[in-house]
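Quick question, first post here. What does this chain look like in 3D?
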Amino acid sequence: MMKKFTIILIAFIFSASFLNAQSYSLSWDGEPIGDTLLIVGDPSDFEMVFHAILTNNSDDTDTLKVQRRMIHLLDETVHYLCWSVACYAPNRDSIWVAPDSLVLESGQSTLELDFSAHYEPNGVIGTSMVEYTFFNKSDLDEKVTVVVKYKTSPEGIIDRMDKEGYLSELYPNPAISQVNIDYTLTPDVEKANFRVMNLLGAVVKNLEMDKKSSNLRIDVSDLTSGVYFYSVILNNEVYKTKKLILK
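> Answer (accepted):
Ran it through. Tokens below.
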């Protein structure tokens, strides 16, 4: 049976104006995807699946295609993808374009099953990197790209936190002057940090989380109102990244 794997959004880091200027955008589970996405799994997993929802932000009805570029694929691992009406046989070509196209009207998004990328680790430990580019068949400059890192390792700190630790949602959220987060860290957490980033990716708050405590209170009264993202970093690994709204 396939084990649960962890999805970490690394590059939530683009401004609202840039997002609006893009012809297309990507999301997963209702959250925007930035330039890079990390999927962490166990080498014994049967497969790790990346689903993406593509939205046409342009004013036109466009015919979309998808290109896959193998940045680094570990030996003995397998990769294939599904797009539009077909799933294609695994291959290790450096650059490959799916034969089929998909038409999206202005403002329309793909369905969840319209695109999926499948990575089979086959017991191999390490990281494979694959780039996906969704582009307009009639205008190659209209595109959106994401690099997905498929990382497999034996059960680590993230898995143990999911099973034995605890991390609450940030509250209140939306907030005005102060936010809180409750937590219980596992014994193998040597260092924990709480970071707040603005839409440009700049770190505006970086606080250490006391291992002996169970609550962190963060003063945000010095930050302007708007949308931010916060991350919890455990032993220099991103554990969670979510949105913070300040009134």
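The first helix runs from residue 16 to 21.
The chain has two domains: 6-152, 163-246.
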